[in-house]
Amino acid sequence: MPGKEIYMDNNATTPLHPEVKKAMIDAMGIFGNPSSLHAPGRRARQLTEEVREKVASFIGASPDEVMFAGSGSEANNTVLSVLTCQTKGCESNPNGIAEIITTTIEHPCVLETSRCLHEQGVNVLYLDVDQYGKIDIEQLKHLVTERTGLVSVMMANNEIGTIQDIRTIAEVVRERGALFHTDAVQAVGKIPVNVEELNVDYLTLSGHKLYGPKGIAALYVRKGVPFCPLIRGGHQERGRRAGTENTLGIVGLGKAIEVRSQEMEAEEKRLLALKAALKRGIEENIPDVQFIGHPTDCLPGTLNVSFDGAEGEAIILYLDLEGIAVSTGSACASGSLDPSHVILATGLPAECAHGSIRISLGRENTMEEVEYMIDTLPRVIGKIRDMSTAYKRRQQ
Amino acid sequence: MTETNWAYTDAVKEHFMNPKNILTDEESYQEDGKGVTGNVKCGDEMIVAIKVDKEKGIITDCKWKTFGCASAIASTSVLSEMVKGMKLDDAYNLSAKDINRELGGLPEHKVHCSVLGDKALRIAINDYYMRNGMEDKVQREEERIVCKCMNITDQEIEHAVLDGARTFYDLQEMSKVGTGCGECKEEVTQLLEAYKAKHFCEV
């Protein structure tokens, strides 16, 4: 399949769905400020409110519980930062939340914010994960106390795809009187997500992970739970987020959600079949590999695999030269020198993280592409292992 | 496929795609000196083996293996070509900057990956001297404590620079150097500039 680019990095971001692209092009002429009272403003307002309804209905919320934000990171920052606001008398933190609980495998936008909060005097506790990346409900029960204000656990992990049992987690948290947030950026649009069934207080979703545009996300805020804005100074989003609405982004998100609600179920099955073929192909053609993540409770298109003795950055760059785009948990690719915190959290050794790649399939991937990958990967791994100091030694 | 914004130069790409002088026959390769450095846990490891014309003191062959990223692969590949026919002394004094120049420059955050090859080469050259009763020629890269309060050596400062430290404050963050009495600040700053020049400037 030379000459064609094969994109298998859909957890990083997804290409726009053609229908989303069309809807956005059609909406290019809508320039009015949704806050304006006149006709151009009203036209823009109508579009944003229609999308709010679509998003709400997709996740089982009511429209006034859906707030738009500029990114999943912003939405996650909003929940963590405002609820732990230390300003005296701040209505977002009426009970004086001084303790939050999260996990060791969250996205950096949660981990970094938590670290910052810790510096500001908030007590931060971290839930461990097992070898598959699942948190331990018993540990959760033990850690959540009357001191706990907020618990934030991601629904599906971006690197290894492991899906947490959010419903059970939320039940434990809410039983103990704390608020519960889930970062569902990787889950919404890939698997069914319903805020009522999950019983969560806050939930984050993002446009560009579900074939929508970048720069638009949504935060579900259950009616009646504490809130105050991270970005102040405007009445937009019912005073919850200042800033003129990203109308085009919102239109794109709306169309993406609409298309997802039609395509997701069939897509899930198709991706599971592609992933099974890919996994089998790797197992049959490459020795000494290890799959990382939960065998069943995993996003349908996500496959994380580690190759003994092969360094991840080298793998992705050789694959890139073959026209295949994937990502890695190797330190060398991140620029930070630290290997994936997620893989280390599962208890696997650092060399396993250094040698891992994440393949994340999406709606545009075909069986033909999976076969090309199965054809290409053994050559690439073989080439790297031939020059590896770490491979033969482990074989002995 | 259009290949836009490849993060590495054409020379890096060429050596990455077609690495030269890989030590595929480690057991049967009769090297005159061998050096191993790094470790797999930290994400990179390197073996360099050399053959030497003992009469002339010239490296005649150089082979290598690595568990490393594209930068480590490309920089060691180019190094193995550069040192063939080179006097031992000259090869010993090659720095990551010389290799970098040959490669047309690496992205700054990848330079630390490229120092493994020349480090292993120096160990291999010393190994050659040891094997041939020339202990007097062996050059040791001695560590010296610079910050007495925190027990920080010059090598630790060099590593911190390779890992991205650019200011005295960065170094303090990364190694705690100079966070005690602060007396070493001037010397640490001089070392910082020297290591920055050694590894990063003029590339």
List the helices and strands and how they pair.
The complex is a heterodimer of chains A (396) and B (203).
Chain A: E1 6-7, H1 18-26, H2 39-59, E2 66-69, H3 72-83, E3 99-103, H4 108-119, E4 123-127, H5 137-143, E5 150-152, H6 166-175, E6 179-183, H7 195-198, E7 202-206, E8 217-221, H8 236-239, H9 247-285, E9 289-292, E10 302-307, H10 312-321, E11 324-325, E12 327-328, H11 331-334, H12 341-345, H13 350-354, E13 356-360, H14 367-386, H15 391-395
Parallel strand pairs in A: 1-11, 3-4, 3-5, 5-6, 6-7
Antiparallel strand pairs in A: 2-8, 7-8, 9-10, 10-13, 12-13
Helix pairs in contact in A: 1-9, 2-9, 3-4, 9-14, 10-14
Chain B: H1 10-17, E1 33-39, E2 44-53, E3 58-67, H2 70-82, H3 88-92, H4 96-103, H5 111-131, E4 145-147, E5 152-153, H6 154-162, H7 168-175, H8 185-199
Antiparallel strand pairs in B: 1-2, 2-3, 4-5
Helix pairs in contact in B: 1-2, 2-4, 2-5, 6-7, 6-8
Structural commentary:
Chain A contains 15 helices and 13 strands. In chain A, strand 3, helix 4 (108-119) and strand 4 form a beta-alpha-beta unit. With 396 residues, chain A is an alpha/beta fold. Chain A has a seven-stranded mixed sheet with strand order 2-8-7-6-5-3-4, with helices on both faces. The longest helix of chain A is centred in the last third of the chain and has 39 residues, at 247-285. In chain A, helix 1 runs antiparallel to helix 9 and helix 10 crosses helix 14 (367-386). Helix content of chain A is 42%, strand content 13%. Chain B has 203 residues and is α+β, with helices and mostly antiparallel strands. Chain B folds into two domains: 10-137, Sufe protein. Chain: A (Alpha-Beta Complex), CATH 3.90.1010.10; 145-199, BFD-like [2Fe-2S]-binding domain (Arc Repressor Mutant, subunit A), CATH 1.10.10. Chain B is built from eight helices and five strands; from the N terminus they run αβββααααββααα. In chain B, strand 2 and strand 3 form a beta hairpin. The interface between A and B is medium-sized, with 32 and 32 residues.
